[in-house]
């Protein structure tokens, strides 16, 4: 009984403006790491154990990394690896190995794009017509899905919307696409032949083509770091911050104390925090919080895709048909 599939963070009801404005209790995890069982035959048990832990703890999230079923876990820090290793060993009898952590990037649209596939035309093998227009939205605004009025059955609209959100998990470089407006236009179907499956299969082809036309930029997570340091350590601290790719946003001197506000890539934050006690002779103080994303210097990192690749039409159609 009850909402068996509900998870922490899910919204109940239609939702209004006030609900959408609620801030996240935690920033998104900035790191991910491959996790493997020491005994390769226990991969299924490991997945089941991690899924149970993810249901209990909103700070744990999983991603299938490739077709062989390899799993990556999203993390807030390397200490979380130690906690998971101990929990899996103690509660599930599983020995595991974690790979090196890597930063979780995202993709943002550079411009606007649109694409259209029409039923029975242009090599479209599915009994569905779909058009998508994508446009960048304000940072932090999330995904806004809109649809033009049409005559599709409700099940087809629902299948289309659900698949849009799934397809946005992997952009042109393999990272999640965030902060954009996706508009469905000119939907159509055949009253005899069309199924919801036709729409689910067609969505990635059309949506990723629209995203390809728009273009994306890969962005990394950043933190805002506020420091109070002895004024005579300013030069040394600034040198360390610049080495860590930080941007100094504001500087204020108050007597013998210097106040700094900087933005710094999340992946570099831990290293700076470890240096600060020594650089400030133990007299410094600091605090940090998640501050969004900014473009990564070239060459931008990519992420291996999972599942059929809609950016390669022939490969996608063959893989979906093989099913």
Number of domains: 3
> Largest sheet, described in full?
6 strands, mixed
- CATH level 1 name of the largest domain: Alpha Beta
At CATH level 2, the architecture of the largest domain is 2-Layer Sandwich
Low-pLDDT windows of residues: 16-21
- The percent range for strand residues is 25-35%
Distance between the termini: 34 Å
Q: Can you count the beta strands?
A: 15
Sum up the overall morphology in one term.
Answer: globular
CATH topology of the largest domain: Ribosomal Protein S5, domain 2
Fraction of helical residues: 25-40%
What is the C-alpha radius of gyration, as a whole number of Å? 23 Å
Q: Helices and strands, in N-to-C order? A: HEHEEHEEEEEEHEEHEHEEHEH
Summed over residues and divided by their number, the pLDDT gives a mean of 89
Specify the structural class: alpha+beta
How many individual helices? 8
Question: Can you put this structure into words, describing what you see?
Answer:
By secondary structure, the protein is an alpha+beta fold. It has 3 domains: 23-104, Elongation Factor G (Translational Gtpase), domain 3 (Alpha-Beta Plaits), CATH 3.30.70; 107-218 and 303-322, 2-Layer Sandwich (Ribosomal Protein S5, domain 2); 220-295, Alpha-Beta Plaits. It contains 8 helices and 15 strands. The strands form 3 sheets. Strands 6, 10, 12, 13, 14 and 15 form a 6-stranded mixed beta sheet that branches. Helix 6 (234-243) packs antiparallel against helix 7 (266-279). The protein is globular, with a radius of gyration of 23 Å.
Provide the fold topology:
Blueprint: H1 17-20, E1 31-37, H2 43-56, E2 61-64, E3 71-75, H3 78-92, E4 96-98, E5 102-103, E6 106-109, E7 113-117, E8 128-136, E9 143-147, H4 154-167, E10 176-177, E11 180-189, H5 196-214, E12 216-230, H6 234-243, E13 247-254, E14 257-265, H7 266-279, E15 285-295, H8 313-322
Parallel strand pairs: 6-10, 9-11
Antiparallel strand pairs: 1-3, 1-4, 1-5, 2-3, 6-12, 7-8, 8-11, 12-14, 12-15, 13-14
């Amino acid at each position: 009984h009850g909402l068996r599939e509900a998870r922490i963070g899910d919204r109940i009801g239609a939702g209004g403006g006030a609900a959408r404005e609620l801030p996240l209790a935690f920033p998104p995890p900035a790191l991910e790491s491959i996790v493997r069982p020491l005994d390769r035959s226990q991969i299924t048990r490991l997945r089941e154990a991690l899924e149970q832990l993810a249901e209990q703890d909103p700070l744990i999230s999983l991603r299938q990394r490739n077709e062989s079923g390899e799993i990556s876990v999203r993390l807030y820090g390397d200490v979380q690896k130690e906690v998971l290793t101990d929990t899996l060993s103690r509660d599930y009898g599983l020995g595991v190995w974690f790979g090196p952590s890597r930063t979780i990037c995202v993709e943002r649209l550079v411009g606007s794009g649109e694409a259209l596939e029409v039923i029975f035309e242009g090599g479209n093998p599915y009994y569905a017509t779909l058009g998508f227009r994508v446009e960048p939205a304000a940072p932090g605004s999330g995904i806004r899905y809109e649809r033009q009025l049409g005559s599709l059955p409700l099940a087809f609209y629902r299948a289309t919307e659900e698949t849009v959100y799934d397809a946005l998990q992997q952009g042109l470089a393999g990272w999640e696409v965030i902060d954009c407006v996706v508009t469905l236009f000119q939907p159509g179907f055949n009253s005899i032949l069309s199924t919801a499956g036709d729409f689910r299969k067609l969505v990635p082809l059309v949506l990723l083509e629209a995203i390809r036309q728009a273009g994306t930029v890969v962005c990394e997570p950043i933190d805002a770091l506020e420091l109070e340091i002895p004024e005579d350590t300013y030069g040394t601290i600034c040198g360390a911050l610049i080495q860590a790719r930080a941007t100094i946003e504001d500087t204020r001197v108050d007597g013998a104390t210097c106040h700094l506000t900087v933005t710094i890539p999340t992946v570099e934050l831990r290293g700076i925090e470890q240096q600060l006690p020594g650089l400030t002779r133990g007299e410094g103080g600091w605090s940090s919080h998640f501050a969004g994303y900014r473009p990564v210097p070239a060459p931008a990192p990519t992420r291996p895709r999972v599942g059929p690749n809609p950016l390669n039409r022939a490969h996608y159609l063959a893989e979906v048909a093989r099913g």
